[in-house]
Amino acid sequence: MKPVFRFAVVLLMAGMSSLVFGQAPPDQFFDSNGVRIRYIEHGTGEPVVLVHGYTGIAEANWVAPKVFDELAKNFRVIALDCRGHGKSDKPHDPKQYGQEMALDVVRLLDHLKIRKAHIVGYSMGALITAKLLTLKPERFLTATLGGQGGLLDPTEADLKLHDQLAADMEKGSLRSLILALTPKDQPAPTEEQIKQSETSLLSGKDTAALAAVARSLRNLKITEAQVAAIKVPTLAIIGTADPLIEYVNKLKKAMPKLEVVPVEGARHITAFGRPEFIAALQEFLKANSIKK
Predict the structure, then answer these.
(1) Which is nearest to 272 in space by CA: 87, 89, 126, 81?
(2) Greatest distance between any 2 Cα atoms in the chain
(3) Among candidates 55, 25, 56, 57, which has minimal Cα distance to 42?
(4) With a threshold of 0.90, does the pTM exceed it?
(5) In this structure, are strands 117-122 and 76-80 parallel, antiparallel, or unpaired?
(6) Which of 16, 232, 264, 273 meets the CB 3.0–4.6 Å disulfide criterion with 20?
């Protein structure tokens, strides 16, 4: 696997030391219906909540690629570790995930006494964000879906992929996920390369908790009828080389007002680190600021 590709994968999904990420704001915690959730925050202004991808943490998805710091120049930015990830609690029961991960965001807003916020989710975080638009739309000023378009009327193949991901994770493997995120016009990684990546990505992770997360993802599904009712301004940012672009295209058909910004040539594991990503996000947030 090429060094740049491996670094990008690690950046998205693996927790690294603070020496790599630089100085992050101090950890804060709150109780979310019996589950301890960790979050960080910085900046002032309208609140923006950042929700990371599967197996990731706030630092990997948002701090390292400078999204957190750039947004904090104009907004109050809050990034959490989803349950099952990072420094948050890690239940092993799939019933503790799914919709509960979405409600954690609402409970965080309640904890911070925030009535409405912008929300930005990447990959799994985008699934959570899309679900929130159908559960609690009144709590959000805008929504941004990065690297995903939500689990809209999932096919049997979509659900089987989540089940396979869970089965792999129970064996300490990310094989199905790595293959699913490989651009379709690129050669698949070899078994040796997959093993090398798994060693880096899963070191120190609670794979039983992550398997439970994967089994719960089907509970984040949304329907066309629910999407048609969404009035919250919504943006999707997606790499043109990201296989998950098909989910953004599917959402666009059901939600014509969805604004889509493609990041030319970006893969799933590189788009959030591109300057086009943060530029599109900042422009969208400023255009939809209640204080503009």
Answers:
(1) 126
(2) 52
(3) 25
(4) yes
(5) unpaired
(6) 16
- Tokens 């020496």, located at residue: 19
